[in-house]
Amino acid sequence: MVAMSLTETRYTISEVEARTGLTQHTLRWYERIGLMPHVDRSHSGQRRFSDRDLHWLAFVGKLRATGMSVADMVRYAELVREGEHTVDQRRELLEQTRREVRARITELNDALAVLDFKIDMYAKGTTAGKATRP
What we know:
Elements: E1 2-3, E2 9-11, H1 13-20, H2 24-33, E3 40-41, E4 47-50, H3 51-66, H4 70-82, H5 87-123
Domain HTH merR-type: 10-79
Keywords: DNA-binding
GO molecular function, one term: DNA binding
């Protein structure tokens, strides 16, 4: 860990990899496609990530977990960089993602109910005579 000042800690790309589980290749790619805000560099050109960068990466991880496309994540990052006047656009992007997540949760709950039914049926030994059903 490299301290840039008394109040601001900076992390090398290796440290960020260890903390986040993201590979160095992924971190560089995020920066290249505009998903990461400007990452500071040391005098020798090495990336130096801040705590704010780590928080952003955690948020991006949550967006990835929702199934949000990379294009939408990059668009969201662009909107953040553009400033406060984009709050409504950011909210709409997140609301759309939330609707999609809720729809997937509903689908998964339906699939889970079918699995529970079949598991219960097998556990009770009630499969006899039902050879035509999966």
